[in-house]
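Dear colleagues,

As part of the handover before I leave the project, I'm documenting each prediction I ran so the next person doesn't have to rerun anything. This entry is a single chain, and its sequence is reproduced below.
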Amino acid sequence: MSIAAYHQTIAECDDPRTIEYRVFLRITLSLERHRADDWRSSDLKDALWRNMELWNTLRADLLEDDNALPEQLRAGLVSLSFTVDRYTQRVLRGEAGPDLLIDINRAVMQGLQGVQHASAPPVKELAHGA
């Protein structure tokens, strides 16, 4: 079986929440890896752009009429996507580091796993143990 066919099979078999979690995980780990880099770092910029692309895609999906999430959750996530946009611009200008973006992504990842915030185990352990 070719690698492309293997990836297609995984995509067809995995739960959408699991796929979303994996995408968030990859991007968040990249942000974490480059959190101490200078704001001019191409690696940090790449991680930031991939994160913005993820959030822009998520926003577009949330704004679709047929999105099945509850309206209040959709509105909260759309609002959060605009926060990610604004804050990313600050990081790209060297005015802030990516920690807030990492925290936002980690919180969303916990939600995708169905973990309640108060009882959630440390997310780094989940990510590195996966």
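Residues 16-129 form one domain. The radius of gyration is 16 Å.

All the best with the project,
I.
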